[in-house]
Structures are given as structure tokens and as C-alpha cells.
Design the sequence.
């Protein structure tokens, strides 16, 4: 029971506070769990790793769960991962069953969160033990695999790959780091910017810019739509929910949570893919698929179990391979970096107490999420009505603190925030994909080191194919994801052609 | 085949190897996108005109301008009282107030009062928390 030592009042309060703030961020359309983590990162500087993670994991679980509130009450997904919750949640709310729909979503979220926590506890140590044996070759191929999976699941494979490679390219700006075996020479640095870009763009300002500032610019572009007034929100009757609605839905719950956890484990694939996949599977296997989209509780169960199932799964590649499972866990890398801890195959073995604390924090966050959302269900509607004109300026201000304090007071990091905020806003217009870009940006420097060290050690490019059986399997997986994505995009093109 | 796949790396120019490979790949992918999406790209004018037409021409340029001014003034003002975080505090109060006004839809007396109260309380509270409690450096 040694792991319970971490349960200090501060630790628990941070989880509770994080979960509540996360629910608020998740419940306000245009604000996401990723934004919540980005905005609150600077607070973790002074908290230490375990307490900092307690806060951030609470924000993550709360942020993903909060998205169901506007999805059901307004038909607007609070976060991208709750898109499919609108399909059946909103029709139920229109029938006056908003409260029942939310309760179904909250229970499904809890089960999804707990199943994914089990997946995290089971798979992360196993994968890490396996990954310890990896040489530079396999580590390089894992990164290639991560980028190929993300590209495969992008809306457009070619643009997905382009975005990922662009992320790698941008990450190489600056000096080739001597501490990683480089020669310290600058590259890709515009004349006059050598002083500012010697260490390249810092990770956290880039992420905060892409997920914080860019989202506010997008909202400003569409006129920062007014918050809803309470009379528009349909909570419905206070009765009308019974756990019997879950009768016959156990398979759906477990399958959807499992899909969520699996999608989470795939590097860089976010919550919207998890809930869409879980929803479409639930519809396919349902005896009454015609009811989906018209207020079918099974649809809400699939969507919410799927997106919360993602939370633990997304931490698996992060803690075992050092590769983020989605954009929010990419920000968690920042929290580890701040505390001087490197995530990768050795993390769990070397940081057993932190690992236990993370599992405990996720468990408590899920329970807190369930209790608060379930008990305060009628007040959740109030969150949706918080005016954005109050929130956006505060978020912008918090983004500045996060960027400025990351390297203990470098103003260029604040400008980085603006550069990548604008880039993130423009990227959407150019139809570039942000998730592959971010993962490429995070993994680019490691990819370079692994690639260079491999060639330096072996002096032959065939080593990438012949080093070990693991390398062979990884090439097969890379090929499978590329072929899979070609098949998917052809099928998509065909169905679009049929539809038109 | 054996000799063809052999690679020797000159350490002095090693910083350029990976960026060149990645840059080359980016170029090839860019060309592939240009060729495969040529119709879409040729007709992109309409896409951008539509974006321009739908854009809120007050709020987006307004928030960009305010952010630029906010970032630009923070350091010069902070330098007047070094290591106190005053640049952040003094610039954040009007920034929060003005951007709040910008995002507002109905600028009634009640809304303006709320925004005034928020801009006079939240930035000082945040400044106090980060610089005095957490001892973090602010501009």
C-alpha cells in the first residue's frame, strides 16, 4: 500500500480542482481538454511532478467528459471527441430527456475511463519492457510508424503525411544539438534570427500557440458566437433516468471503451476518431440500427465510452515509447520536460512512484468526474452559458504566462506563441492537419538522432531493414498502415462519388 | 548492391543531412499534392474569397492587433521596474478589458461593469499568484 503515500490533501485537491476546471473547459464549445492543459501548464512549475500530473490528468479526464454537456443540451460538441454524442443526445434533449441523456453519457464516460485505466496499467509496463530492447533502428522505425498511422487516419493521407513531415522539418530549425551528439551547427535558420532560433522553437509555446491562441483566433473569425442563454438549454425532466437503460448494453460499453483505448494507443490519433469508430461499430452491431441518430441511448453510450476510453490508452505510447497518443498527451510531455523527466521505455521502471501516482490520479479523476457531473447535473447547463468575452481574454493572458515562463523569461517564446497561433489558424484554412504536424514536431529531433546514430554506427542503409525481426515487423506495420489508408481513401472517394 | 548502400558521414556537415532528406521529402509530397489536387488548387480563389466574406472583420483583426500591442509593450514597460513582473501586470489589465469589449456582443452598462471588474481583479490575482507565490519570472 506504499503507493497510497502519494494521497496527500494537495494531491487530491489538485485532481478535484483539475477535473472541475476540465469539465468547464470541455463544456464550453470552442474550448477543449487540450486547451485546459495548455492554459494550466504554468501552474505545474511549482507543484512538482506528481502534483503537477494530478492537476493535468484531472483536466484531461474532466475536459473529455465535459464535452457531452453542450453536445446533448445544444447539439454542439463541446470538444471534437463528443461529435457523435450530439447524434443521439440532442434528439433526446429535444424530446425533453436531456437529463436522462446526460446521465447515460456520464455513466458511460466513467466505465470508459475505468476500462482505459485498466488498459493503461496492463499495456504500458508490458510495452515499455519490450521497448527497452529497442536500438536506434527500431526507435527510428517506431517514429516512422507513428507518422504513418496518423497519416492513415487523416482526412487526406497525402496531406496528413505532408503535415507530419512539415512538423519534423520545423523541429529541425536551429542548432544540431551537441548534447544529442550533433555538431552544434545551425541549419534552416533565417539570417538575422540566429540569436533567437539557436535552440529552435520551444515545444510548449508551439503547442500553446496551436491549441490555445489558434482556437481563439478561429472563434474571433466567426465572431465569437454568443454564449447560450439559459432558456435555450433543454435539460428536461429531473426524472426519467434508470440504470435499466444499460441492460443489454454491456457489450456495447465494453466494446466502445476497448475501441477508445485501442485508438488511444495508436500514436497521435485523437478522441474524435475514437468516438466515431465506437459509434459506427455500435450502429453496425445493433439490432435496431435505424434508431441511431434519432435519440438512441446506445449511441450516447458508444460515443462517451469511446472518447473516455481514449484517455488511458493515449498515455500508453507516451509512457512506454515517449510518443504521445493524442494532442493532450503531447502537452503532458511538456509537463515532464519542465520537471526534467524524460518519458520513454525507462520511465515506469525509474519512476515507479510517479507511475503509481498517475494511475491513482486517473482513477480519482474518473470518480470525481462521475460524482460531480452526476450530482450537479442540473447546474452543468449553467456552464454552457458562461460568456466567452470573459473567458477568452483570461485564456490569452494565461497562454502568455505559459510561454514566457517555460525557459524562465524569454520573450521570443511569447512571439512563438503568436507565430504558431497564426499558423494553426491558417493551417485549418489550408486544410493541413494539426495532429500529425504536432507529433512530427515533437518526434523530429529524436528521429534525426536515431537516424544519424544508426548510419554512423552501421554505415549501411540496409540496416533499417535487417537489424532485427522487430524492424521487419515494424516495416510490415508501416506498409499495412499506408495500404490501409489508400484503401480507406479510395472507399471514401467512391462513397462521395456515389452520394453525388 | 553492397557498395551502393554504404554510407559514410562527415561530422562537419552532419547537421545538414537529415534536414536535406526531410526537405526533399517535403518537396516531393508538396509536388504530389499540387499535381493530384491541381483542380482544387486552381479554384482556391473562391475558397479564400468565401473565408474573407464570412470573416468577422472587427473581431479577428482586432484581437490580432491587441495581441501584437500587448506582446510589444510588455517588455519595454517591464524594463522600467525590472524583475517585478510589472510589464505583465500593467499591460494585462487594459488587454483583458479591451479584448473583452471586443468579444462582447451587447456592450451594455452591465457587461462593461462585469468586464471592468474582471480586468481589475483577475490580472492582479494571476500576477500575484505566479510572481509572489510561485516565484516565476514575468515580463
Sequence:
Amino acid at each position: 500500500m506504499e503507493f497510497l503515500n502519494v494521497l496527500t490533501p494537495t494531491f487530491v485537491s489538485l485532481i478535484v480542482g483539475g477535473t472541475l476546471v476540465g469539465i468547464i473547459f470541455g463544456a464550453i464549445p470552442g474550448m477543449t481538454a487540450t486547451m485546459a492543459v495548455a492554459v494550466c501548464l504554468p501552474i505545474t512549475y511549482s507543484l512538482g511532478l506528481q502534483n503537477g500530473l494530478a492537476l493535468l490528468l484531472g483536466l484531461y479526464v474532466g475536459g473529455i467528459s465535459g464535452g457531452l454537456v453542450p453536445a446533448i443540451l445544444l447539439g454542439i460538441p463541446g470538444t471534437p471527441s463528443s461529435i457523435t454524442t450530439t447524434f443521439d443526445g440532442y434528439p433526446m434533449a429535444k424530446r425533453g430527456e436531456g437529463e436522462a441523456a446526460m446521465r447515460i453519457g456520464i455513466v458511460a464516460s466513467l466505465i470508459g475511463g475505468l476500462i482505459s485505466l485498466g488498459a493503461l496499467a496492463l499495456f504500458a509496463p508490458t510495452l515499455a519492457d519490450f521497448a527497452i530492447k529497442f536500438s536506434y533502428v527500431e526507435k527510428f522505425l517506431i517514429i516512422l510508424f507513428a507518422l504513418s498511422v496518423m497519416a492513415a487516419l487523416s482526412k487526406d493521407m497525402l496531406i496528413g503525411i505532408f503535415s507530419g513531415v512539415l512538423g519534423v522539418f520545423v523541429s529541425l530549425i536551429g542548432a544540431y544539438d551537441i548534447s544529442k551528439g550533433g555538431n552544434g551547427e545551425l541549419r534552416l535558420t533565417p539570417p538575422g534570427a540566429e540569436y533567437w532560433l539557436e535552440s529552435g522553437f520551444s515545444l510548449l509555446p508551439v503547442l500553446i500557440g496551436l491549441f490555445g491562441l489558434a482556437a481563439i483566433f478561429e472563434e474571433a473569425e466567426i465572431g465569437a458566437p454568443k454564449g447560450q442563454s439559459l432558456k435555450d438549454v433543454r435539460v428536461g425532466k429531473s426524472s426519467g433516468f434508470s440504470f435499466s437503460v444499460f441492460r443489454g448494453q454491456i457489450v456495447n460499453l465494453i466494446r466502445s471503451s476497448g475501441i477508445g483505448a485501442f485508438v488511444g494507443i495508436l500514436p497521435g490519433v485523437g478522441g474524435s476518431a475514437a468516438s466515431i469508430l465506437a459509434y459506427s461499430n455500435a450502429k453496425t452491431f445493433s439490432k435496431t440500427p435505424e434508431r441511431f441518430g434519432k435519440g438512441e441511448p446506445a449511441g450516447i453510450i458508444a460515443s462517451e465510452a469511446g472518447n473516455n476510453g481514449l484517455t488511458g490508452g493515449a498515455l500508453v505510447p507516451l509512457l512506454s515509447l515517449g510518443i504521445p497518443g493524442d494532442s493532450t498527451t503531447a502537452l503532458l510531455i511538456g509537463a515532464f520536460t519542465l520537471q526534467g523527466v524524460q518519458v520513454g521505455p525507462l520511465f515506469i521502471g525509474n519512476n515507479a512512484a510517479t507511475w503509481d501516482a498517475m494511475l491513482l490520479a486517473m482513477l480519482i479523476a474518473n470518480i470525481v468526474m462521475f460524482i460531480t457531473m452526476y450530482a450537479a447535473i442540473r447546474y452543468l447547463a449553467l456552464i454552457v452559458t458562461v460568456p466567452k468575452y470573459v473567458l477568452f481574454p483570461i485564456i490569452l493572458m494565461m497562454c502568455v504566462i505559459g510561454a514566457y515562463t517555460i525557459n524562465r523569461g524569454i520573450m521570443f517564446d511569447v512571439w512563438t506563441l503568436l507565430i504558431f497561433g497564426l499558423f494553426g489558424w491558417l493551417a485549418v484554412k489550408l486544410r493541413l492537419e494539426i495532429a500529425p504536424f504536432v507529433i512530427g514536431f515533437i518526434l523530429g529531433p529524436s528521429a534525426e538522432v536515431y537516424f544519424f546514430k544508426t548510419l554512423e554506427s552501421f554505415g549501411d542503409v540496409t540496416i533499417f531493414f535487417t537489424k532485427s525481426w522487430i524492424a521487419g515487423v515494424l516495416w510490415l506495420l508501416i506498409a499495412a498502415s499506408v495500404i490501409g489508408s489508400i484503401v480507406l481513401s479510395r472507399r471514401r472517394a467512391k462513397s462521395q462519388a456515389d452520394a453525388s | 548492391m553492397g557498395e551502393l548502400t554504404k554510407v559514410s558521414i562527415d561530422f562537419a556537415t552532419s547537421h545538414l543531412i537529415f534536414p536535406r532528406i526531410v526537405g526533399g521529402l517535403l518537396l516531393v509530397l508538396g509536388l504530389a499534392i499540387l499535381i493530384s489536387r491541381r483542380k482544387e488548387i486552381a479554384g482556391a480563389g473562391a475558397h479564400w474569397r468565401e473565408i474573407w466574406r464570412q470573416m468577422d472583420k472587427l473581431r479577428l483583426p482586432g484581437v490580432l492587433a491587441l495581441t501584437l500591442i500587448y506582446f510589444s509593450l510588455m517588455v519595454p514597460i517591464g524594463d522600467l521596474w525590472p524583475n517585478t513582473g510589472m510589464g505583465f501586470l500593467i499591460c494585462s489589465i487594459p488587454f483583458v478589458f479591451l479584448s473583452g469589449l471586443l468579444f462582447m456582443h451587447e456592450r451594455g452598462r452591465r457587461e462593461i461593469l462585469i468586464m471592468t471588474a474582471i480586468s481589475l481583479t483577475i490580472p492582479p490575482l494571476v500576477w500575484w499568484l505566479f510572481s509572489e507565490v510561485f516565484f516565476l519570472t514575468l515580463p
Observations:
- DSSP finds 22 helices and two strands in chain A.
- Chain A has a mean pLDDT of 88.
- Strands of chain A lie at 174-175, 186-187.
